[in-house]
Amino acid sequence: MTTQEVKRKLAAILSADVKGYSRLMGEDEKGTVRTLNTYKEVMTGLIQHHHGRVVNAPGDNVLAEFGSVVDAVECACKIQKELKTRNEDLSENRRMEFRIGVNLGDVIEDGEQILGDGVNIAARLESLSEAGGICISGTALDQVENKLELGYEYLGEQTVKNIKKAVRVYRVLMEPDRAGKVIGEERLKPKHFPDKPSIAVLPFDNLSGDPRQESIGDGVAENITTTLAKIPELFVIARNSAFGYKGKPIDVKKVAESLGVRYVLEGSIQKSGERTRITAQLIDATSGHHIWSEKYDREMRDFFALSDEITRNIAVALQIKLTEGEQARVFHRYTENLEAWAFTSQAWNLFSRFTREDDARARELAEQAVKLDPQYGFAWSLLAYSYFNAARMGWCESPEEYFNKGIELNQKALTLNKDLFCATAQQGQIHLFLRQYERAIEMGRRSVELGPSIALNYMLLASTLCYAGNFEEAITLGEKSVSLHPFCPYYYLLYLATSYRMAGRYEEAIVLYKQILYRAQKEAFSPFPAYIGLADVYSEMGRVEEAHTQALEILRIDPSFSLENWSKTEPFRDVKHLEKRLTALRKAGLK
């Protein structure tokens, strides 16, 4: 088709496929094809009834277009309701459940076929949907929000291959009591700037043309971020959130709006021989004005002194009155060994992924760092953290041995530096899992004092308070940790969701558990904890069928799951709080 022949139009696209189709075919090929053909006939009839047409239906996929988004979404709901009724006549392992995505977008006509971004986005929405569920794009929601008796749950912005702009995604809520509601849109968005100077330090560009120098630029931004986080008068966005923009075109105003800050620091680094040139500039995103900029030429042996100088100048530009205490060096700056520092920076970032493999890799990096600098307290703390994680999550053959090793290593870190906030926070977690609640809370509060702008401190203290039974304060601190780290690791949301659940704020808990599920698809971590949370909350709300569905997912992931073993990982001070969760999970069908 030549450029002159290209025909475009705006259309509502419905994309559907069967969840677990390969499994169904593997178990009973003839029966699966028979059911699929019947269900496709039903879907075709409903699509035509709602003024749509089936464009293509290869294998277990169905692609349809409509002239109206209202018709498309209404049709999707009728399809899911009809197929749910038909599935009730089948045994549970033979039920055929479709996932549906609906998008309003531009498409290209190619004979009877349609192509383009509008179709690609619909297919992406379908992949994000639950079995028996429907996901729609923000453009579709804008057309149907007040026209159908439905509710919608915001699932965040999702990236689509070859689509530059992220797509707003919403799950359709078909329950009558949800009609007219749109939940989750403002759950984690800052409503205004913090009441103190707020800043995000973006990754520094590497202008050297040497990829080996990439870590130096990252190191400069890391040093500045963690140093500023020690200053109580500043609101500093966590490093991982700001580094989400690494390698991407930067629109300072949009970045600031996304992260909820007023000021953005950006810069570059260029190494030539033994000398390094660093440029940095501080921008007020509300006006676009440059508040401060500077250029530094130094020998690499002056690396840490250089970071100090940049940090001081930024603080002055923000009119922050500094004291010697606020200038205290933070964790990774207790070494003069640049290689050791680089190893710990990498290890620190790996922990946010929270997987067995990343924990093991982080342990290797921390071990290399302490070999290079045995006096490096932060490295010892990270090494301890890796052992503690492995023990808590069952990522080792002897959890008791690893737990004790973690205690030993963390004490070494505190011996080297008694004010090391991360080691102090970790000590609090050790006390929590030893059921020494008051001591755990004491250490948690101390870690917040030592690092008042560090998201991890608030998150760990929040989890301790939740298990100790102080749910409302746990929520306050959990929300604080998320506001400091907008792109936080998923377990921040997990602890906050648990606090919501224990406080009886079920709808808010569901929003977070759902966000974790969709992040699990994108970030490739296990959705298991979110399924536990949803089974628990749905059961507590009396939504037994939905709770049972989550329980089946739990058993699919871990067929040997037992409530007895799971309960050992939940250190609630009051046994009644643990029993409340266990009762709900039993009602969901778990044993």
Descriptive notes:
The chain is of the alpha/beta class. Among the domains are: 3-183, Alpha-Beta Plaits; 198-329, Rossmann fold (3-Layer(aba) Sandwich). The chain is 52% helix and 18% strand. The chain has helices spanning 21-27, 29-49, 69-87, 117-128, 138-144, 214-228, 239-242, 252-259, 303-317, 338-351, 356-372, 377-393, 399-416, 421-433, 437-450, 455-468, 471-484, 490-502, 506-523, 528-540, 544-557, 563-567, 575-587, and strands at residues 7-18, 52-56, 62-66, 98-110, 113-115, 134-137, 151-160, 163-173, 182-183, 198-201, 205-206, 235-236, 263-272, 275-284, 289-299. Strands 1, 2, 3, 4, 5, 6, 7, 8 and 9 form a nine-stranded mixed sheet that branches. Strands 10, 11, 12, 13, 14 and 15 form a six-stranded mixed sheet that branches. Strand 2 and strand 3 (62-66) form a beta hairpin. The longest helix is centred in the N-terminal third of the chain and has 21 residues, at 29-49. The model is unreliable at 186-193 and 318-332 (pLDDT under 50).
Give the topology, please.
Elements: E1 7-18, H1 21-27, H2 29-49, E2 52-56, E3 62-66, H3 69-87, E4 98-110, E5 113-115, H4 117-128, E6 134-137, H5 138-144, E7 151-160, E8 163-173, E9 182-183, E10 198-201, E11 205-206, H6 214-228, E12 235-236, H7 239-242, H8 252-259, E13 263-272, E14 275-284, E15 289-299, H9 303-317, H10 338-351, H11 356-372, H12 377-393, H13 399-416, H14 421-433, H15 437-450, H16 455-468, H17 471-484, H18 490-502, H19 506-523, H20 528-540, H21 544-557, H22 563-567, H23 575-587
Parallel strand pairs: 4-6, 7-9, 10-12, 10-13, 11-13
Antiparallel strand pairs: 1-3, 1-4, 2-3, 4-5, 6-8, 7-8, 13-14, 14-15
